[in-house]
């Protein structure tokens, strides 16, 4: 299979049309078989529930080329499970896990020419999503749905590649207690758009949200979980019911404990403790682990001693081990790597 003529190394995190997407429709209480399509547009009634009441959720995972030329994905079962949680919370039908994984395999295989080569610094981003498609004007869930998967080759999420970020503690909230912060609903991102544009205008790369009830503990950013390295070389990450259960973060905790022998804790983290950490990173499928050099809390600057000019040593080990597993250089725990043949 010949790869597309793309300058992989200069890709940013953007959308590019590929050859195929996957589409399945839900009607009369059941999903159809689903198929590949080369139509990358969606035409719906003006009153579709997704347009009026934002009934939509999504997922994000990647396909990688390994050193020996295989194409693999990373823990797609966890994306299927999280999408099930999202769908249930938004009163949408569940797209079954086995069918989800099959659809991911099918659409990646059909777009194999777009999976960036090993060592190029790029990957194929896979975006499954679902929406309520029929017309509703009273506030209620749709009865018809579309599940789609689009894929697009991407480079680093943050402009400038892997470089220490400057982030601010946010005054605006992302997710309420007992709200929807723990699922991947489009609405969580719509309400963050104002704040991310404002952050960029003020010279910050991202917002770190605090818990909405007390504004005293660290939650996550608009598109990634947060991870800290303590001064004695342990790893810790916020525990909260209103953050997205990041698959990258959960995997990194295993990497920290089982591969690097580090103490790794999930616990409530106060904004007053920020000074006590040695390193900080943002972790997610898109972000991988992006090092944070500085957090600004209304004029108070927290500079991480390791990581102002480059990735700190522990963050680097975590990054190299995780990406080593994802790209097949390091043996993965059972079931983490799913090969696409
Ligand atoms: N938190 C938010 C708000 C996200 O959008 C993402 C991206 O998916 C993450 C965390 C990281 O999750 P994952 O590692 O599963 O990609
Ligand atoms: C991902 O990492 O997959 C996400 O969905 C984050 C998004 C902000 C691009």
How does this structure look, described?
The chain has 341 residues and is an alpha+beta fold. It folds into two domains: 8-154, 2-Layer Sandwich (D-amino Acid Aminotransferase, Chain A, domain 1); 165-326, D-amino Acid Aminotransferase, Chain A, domain 2, CATH 3.20.10.10. 22% of the residues lie in helices and 29% in strands. It has seven helices and 18 strands. The strands form two sheets. Strands 1, 2, 3, 4, 5, 6, 7, 8 and 18 form a nine-stranded antiparallel sheet that branches. Strands 9, 10, 11, 12, 13, 14, 15, 16 and 17 form a nine-stranded mixed sheet that branches. The radius of gyration is 20 Å and the shape is globular. 2-OXO-4-methylpentanoic acid is lined by residues 60, 223, 284-286.
The CATH superfamily of the largest domain is identified as D-amino Acid Aminotransferase, subunit A, domain 2
Query: What are the segments in which pLDDT stays under 50 over at least 5 consecutive residues?
Result: none
Mean pLDDT: 96
Quick one: how many beta strands?
Answer: 18
> Assembly state here?
single chain
| Percent in strands | 25-35%
Characterize the main sheet: 9 strands, antiparallel
Short account of what is shown:
This protein has 341 residues and is an alpha+beta fold.
List keywords for this structure.
binds pyridoxal-5'-phosphate; 9-stranded antiparallel beta sheet; binds 2-OXO-4-methylpentanoic acid; 341 residues; D-amino Acid Aminotransferase, Chain A, domain 2; alpha+beta; 2 domains; D-amino Acid Aminotransferase, Chain A, domain 1; single chain; 22% helix; 18 strands; globular; 7 helices
